[in-house]
Structure formats: structure tokens, C-alpha cells
Automatic annotation (TrEMBL):
<keyword id="KW-0496">Mitochondrion</keyword>
<feature type="domain" description="NADH:quinone oxidoreductase/Mrp antiporter transmembrane">
    <location>
        <begin position="9"/>
        <end position="148"/>
    </location>
</feature>
<dbReference type="GO" id="GO:0008137">
    <property type="term" value="F:NADH dehydrogenase (ubiquinone) activity"/>
</dbReference>
<dbReference type="Pfam" id="PF00361">
    <property type="entry name" value="Proton_antipo_M"/>
</dbReference>
<feature type="transmembrane region" description="Helical">
    <location>
        <begin position="25"/>
        <end position="46"/>
    </location>
</feature>
<keyword id="KW-0813">Transport</keyword>
<keyword id="KW-0249">Electron transport</keyword>
<keyword id="KW-1278">Translocase</keyword>
<feature type="transmembrane region" description="Helical">
    <location>
        <begin position="119"/>
        <end position="136"/>
    </location>
</feature>
<dbReference type="InterPro" id="IPR050175">
    <property type="entry name" value="Complex_I_Subunit_2"/>
</dbReference>
<dbReference type="InterPro" id="IPR001750">
    <property type="entry name" value="ND/Mrp_TM"/>
</dbReference>
<feature type="transmembrane region" description="Helical">
    <location>
        <begin position="52"/>
        <end position="72"/>
    </location>
</feature>
<keyword id="KW-0812">Transmembrane</keyword>
<keyword id="KW-0830">Ubiquinone</keyword>
<keyword id="KW-0472">Membrane</keyword>
<keyword id="KW-0999">Mitochondrion inner membrane</keyword>
<keyword id="KW-0520">NAD</keyword>
Length: 148
């Protein structure tokens, strides 16, 4: 629902870069949402429950972790974020980097006891390192915001 709400705001500027950023954002978020749905389906198939907070199978938790990393723009699923933020206005970039991250963070909070702490720690460290290195030579504020 968040994606459908932000897409018109992103494409409000009638510019090819805004259209490209909107398309990249929509496709990335749709793929991540499909992965969340697929991980929930795999979990329901193996355990018999649709409760996303009761994931016990490795396949379902791995898919959920990848999907949430893609939605949050964490490394190694972060390649879409700088290009998307570069194509939109500063206000829209601020919304994407803050408000749009609340739902995936709440899903991480709800499923943290089932997700692998090692994988989450590695993704956090990798995101910090790649974000630091990627942001060193940036002169544009939106790309710097994407790497931070």
C-alpha cells in the first residue's frame, strides 16, 4: 500500500529521470512484496500456519530476510536506491528514505526471533561499509543520502 501511495508522488515530475526512478522503485518493491508473499506461502505449506511471526523453516526465513533487505535497501540488495533517489525531488527522496522504511522495519521487529542474527548482522555491517565507501566521492545530496 505504501508503494502505491508513493508512486504518483514520484512520477509527479514529468521528466524521464522521474519516470525511470518510479519504474525502478515500483518493480523493486513489487518483487520484494512477492518474495514476502512467497515466504509466507512456503511457511504455510511446511508448518500449516499463515502466521508470519511463526516462521520456522529455513527457506521461508531466508526469503523473508532477502525481501526485507530489498525493501530497506540494505546491502547486497541496495543497488536500486541511489538511482531511484537521484531521479526524484529531495522531498520525495526524504519520504522514501524514512517513511517507506517503517513497514519493513516493523516486519523485522515482529520476526526478529526467527531471522538469523548472523545474517542480519552481516547485512548491517556490509551496508555500513558499502555505504561509507560509496558515499565518499559523492557530490550530490540525494546519492549521499542513499548511501548513508
Amino acid at each position: 500500500i505504501n508503494t502505491l501511495a508513493i508512486v504518483p508522488i514520484m512520477s509527479k515530475q514529468h521528466h524521464p529521470r522521474a519516470t525511470e526512478a518510479t519504474t525502478k522503485y515500483f518493480l523493486t518493491q513489487a518483487a520484494a512484496s512477492a518474495l514476502i508473499l512467497f515466504s509466507s506461502t512456503v511457511n504455510a505449506w511446511h508448518t500449516g500456519t499463515w502466521d508470519i511471526t511463526q516462521m520456522t523453516t529455513l527457506t521461508a526465513t531466508t526469503l523473508l530476510t532477502l525481501a526485507l533487505a530489498m525493501k530497506l535497501g540494505l546491502a547486497p540488495m541496495h543497488f536500486w536506491l541511489p538511482e531511484v533517489l537521484q531521479g526524484v525531488t529531495m522531498t520525495t527522496a526524504l519520504i522514501i528514505t524514512t517513511w517507506q522504511k517503517l513497514a519493513p522495519m516493523s516486519l523485522i521487529y515482529l520476526t526478529i526471533h526467527n531471522l538469523s542474527p548472523t545474517v542480519l548482522l552481516l547485512m548491517g555491517i556490509l551496508s555500513s561499509l558499502l555505504g561509507g565507501w560509496g558515499g565518499l566521492n559523492q557530490t550530490q545530496t540525494r546519492k549521499l543520502m542513499a548511501y548513508s
